[in-house]
Amino acid sequence: MAEIKVERSHDQHLLVPEEDTAASTRRSLAGNRPRLASLDIFRGLTVALMILVDDAGGDWPMIAHAPWNGCNLADFVMPFFLFIVGVSIALSLKRISNKFEACKKVGFRTCKLLFWGLLLQGGFSHAPDELSYGVDVTMMRFCGILQRIALSYLVVALVEIFTKDSHEENLSTGRFSIFKSYYWHWIVGVSVLVIYLATLYGTYVPDWEFVVYDKDSILYGNSQSVTCGVRGKLNPPCNAVGYVDRQVLGINHMYHHPAWRRTKACTNDSPYEGAIRQDAPSWCHAPFEPEGVLSSISAILSTIIGVHFGHIIIHMKGHSARLKHWISTGLVLLTLGLTLHFTHLMPLNKQLYSFSYICVTSGAAALVFSSLYSLVDILEWKHMFLPLKWIGMNAMLVYVMGAEGILAAFFNGWYYRHPHNTLIDWIREHVFIRVWHSKRVGVLMYVIFAEILFWGLVTGVFHRFKIYWKL
C-alpha cells in the first residue's frame, strides 16, 4: 500500500556496520547497493495482514477492526504502513543534492497516492463483489488509506528535506544526540499532538442530523437526529473527530459502513456484523470516517516515529546499538500507551487515532521491525521470508490487484449462469470450506493459501523478471 507499498524506492539501501564498509564499497562500485531486506519483509507482512483481516475478518471478528475502543490485529495495519513510510523517507532522502527536485518528486508522488486512493476507495470501484463501476460524486468518499498515507508522507518528507542542513551526518556521542539533531521533527510531532488533543477535548460538539442512505435499512431515506451538546467526549456519536469531518468533508462524503455498527449497542450479533437492532440509537445508522481529517493529522506522528528509526540506521553503524535503541524505544511506547488505556486517561481507539493507540501500535511496529532486522539482516535468515519480501517489493501491485479486489473482480466477471457462481466461489467452497468442514476455517485457509501465498508467488515471478509497480 504505499510508501509502504507505493513509496518504496530502490534508493533505500541498508547501511551496513563499520566492519563491513569495504564489502559495501565494492558492492556500490559494482552498482549493486544492498537493500534493507527487513523493511521489504515488514512491508510485505503488513500487506499480507491487510488481506488477511479484510477477507477473513468477517468470519473471525477478533482479527477485524475493533468496533470502537480496543485494538485487534486489523488495527495494527495502518500504523505499520505509516511507520514503514517513515523509515523509507529517512533512507530515500538520506542525501539531497537539490531540494527543489526533491520537493517536486515528493509532490508528484503525493498526487499519485491521492489519485489511486480516490479511485479505489472513493466509490468508483465496486470490486470484487459487484460487477459495476461508477459513483455519484455527491456521495463520493474523500478519505481513505492511501489519502492518509499521502498526507503523512508529504508532511514528514518536506520536514526531512528542509531540515537536512540542520544536522550532521555524524552525531555526537550523547545519549539523546539523535533527538537533538532532528529536533525539528519532534517540534512538528509535538505540534501535531497539541493540535489533535486541543481539538479532541476542546471542541464543542452540537446536536446533528443525517439522512440514512443504507438501502437495506428500514429507515432508508429518513432523517435522523443525534443529541450531543457536549465537549471532550470520546464516544461514537459525540466525539470531535466525527464533528470535524462532518464540517470539513460533509457527511455524505464519509464512510457509510463504520466498524461501530458491530458494537452491542447497534446489533445483537456483536462482535459479528448483523442487522441493526430496531431499538438501536440513531447514530448506529450514521456514517463515520475512520481515515478522516483530525485522525489523519494525528497519524502523522506514526510516520515521525518511523523516520526516527530510519535515522538510527543512518547514524548508528553497529547492529547492537541500533537494536538497543529500537527495542528500548518500542518498550517505552508500549508501556506509555497501555498505561494511558488501562488507567482510562485515553482509550486505545483506531477510529479516533488516539495518542495511546499511536504509542501501542508504534511500539509494536518497533519490536516487529527489530525482530525482522535481527533475523534477516543480522542472522541472514532470508529464504524463509522470501514470499513476504517479494510482496513487499511489489506492494502497490498487491494492494491494488489483491487487497482492493481488482483481480478477483476480473475473474468474477466470468461466471456460469449466475454472478455468484464463479471460479473463485467454486474454489473457496469446494477446495477449502468443504475440505475443512467449517466455513470459518475454510475461509481462513483460502485467504492464507489462495490469496496471500498466491500473491507471494506472483510477485516472486515479477521479481525474477525485475517488474515492479512503484510510484
From TrEMBL:
Keywords: Membrane, Transmembrane, Transmembrane helix
UniProt xrefs under Pfam families: HGSNAT_cat
Keyword Cytoplasm: no
Keyword field contains Nucleotide-binding: no
Record-annotated membrane-spanning stretches: 36-53, 73-94, 106-125, 145-162, 183-204, 293-314, 326-346, 352-376, 397-416, 443-462
Stretches assigned to the Heparan-alpha-glucosaminide N-acetyltransferase catalytic domain: 35-159
Top-level taxonomic group: Eukaryota
Official protein name in the record: Heparan-alpha-glucosaminide N-acetyltransferase catalytic domain-containing protein
Provenance organism: Arabidopsis thaliana x Arabidopsis arenosa
